[in-house]
Design goal:
With about 525 residues, the chain is of the alpha+beta class. It has three domains: about 200 residues, no CATH class; about 160 residues; about 120 residues. The chain is built from 17 helices and 18 strands. The strands form three sheets. Strands 1-2-3-4-7-6-5 form a seven-stranded mixed beta sheet, sandwiched between helices. It is globular, with a radius of gyration of 26 Å. The two termini are about 15 Å apart. The relative contact order is 0.09.
Amino acid sequence: MSNDATLFSHIVRSKLEGQEENIAVEALGYILSRSEAARKALVEMMRAGEMSVNSIARVETQISMKKGARPDLVCYDGDGAVNVLIEAKSWAELTDNQPNQYLSQLSQERQEPAAALLFVAPKIRLEALWQELCVKAKKDFELAVVSDSDPVRSASIGCDGLYLQLVSWAYLLEGIARAACEEKDDAAEADVRQLRGLTDYANPDPFAPWSPGKLEYRFARRLEGLKRLVDDAANCGESGGFLKKGNVKSGGQGGYGRLVWLGDVQFWFGIDVFAWAKFYKTPLWLRVGKGKYSQLKEVQPSLQLIDPGERYDIRIPIELPAGVVYDKMLYSVVKCLNGVARRLDPSISPDGVDAAVEKQLHSSDNRLDGFAFKSWCSEELEPECAMRLVALHGIIEEAVNCGKAAGILQQGKKKLKQQGYGWSIQLAGVEMWFGADVKAWAEHCITPLWLEFEHQEQREVAFVTDISKKVGWKHCIPIDVPTTAEHDKVLDCVVASLKNIAERFENPGPSRPATPEQSHYSE
């Protein structure tokens, strides 16, 4: 059941950024409140974890309970007693109250013996989250694991019918959709499909090594997710008093970054694909002009400084720890930045790091994007991943040069953007940007290469093609890249696509042309 492109998901993610998790909770509460079939499916699912909870008659969201407990959903049985608390998670960490205070509160609130605290989370997170829940619960309760594997992980708390359970969003929503279909509850089934489109975004596929010659769109989504890490780390440094934050600015090979001051030295901090591919297995780097090389060496001879050559800035790698949750990854990056700042200004203290990270995490409610918050595995950090993107940059340059030599395009000039590496060009007098657009690639999962047009070119784009996509407010045309071809075949294919589009601009005709063959990147 794949619903990644539902209307609900599109509207929430594009227009209500930062509220995705809360909206998912409200949507689940809405479905359970309005559909008896959905409530029955929830109860049957929990009983599969070997507990006998009463039927659920009513569900409410964000109810404040005694002692400050505020679970996402509170379920009541037919007598009005609380019998199930639901905490819906994406990638947010457990709070200090979870699960122990909720379990204690549930034990006091219930009237019937059987009751449960149910956590719902992305499937890829279940293993680590279940271990964490059990470790924390054992501090205050006698816990006996009933089932520690999918689909329903369950543990009894004490001996009086109180349970702790964990399931995936996918399993819960599939069960509700199946029950709604059997009961012919069409409204609930449609609502579940819409919500599944949103929750699927929090559940990325497990990492698998790329096949030869193939650039996966999942890689683009991971790069998009890194933007949040860059911003969060800069915000932490600013609130911690050891970093001054400047404007967002693209990197040397394209890519997202921003200006920061550490001590009295201005750096660029962000995703540096060139340095990642050539020097060290991390996507995050500090860059500084060569004039600061001596100063940096004087204050700390052991600082890892990489000099790429005469035409390039000095690079400092910011390592990403593999296999850790986002909170620990953010802490590691902020600690590295603080270390560089203290080397430049000994008066800066390391004490503000913990408080700054905690403040930033508490202010970040939205943890829906699985590609941002999923831990990075060691294979994803290898330079080979970045090398393939750099090779694509070479294809872009060659395509521009070939196009100019053949008279296909005019006025080629390199123009780096926050979303990637590319050139400003003209095809048949129409201005556009041509390059590797990571944002478009991640959002539409079609191809890494795109033509991007300003809004005033919208009419011309509509005349030449019906496969343009919206990326933000701009119109973009995908340029197909054959994934299994050799270099020369890829270059020929890209140049031929540019030529075809140029000819369409010159002779748009009375109607739109037929849609070209589907890209190799489409699923």
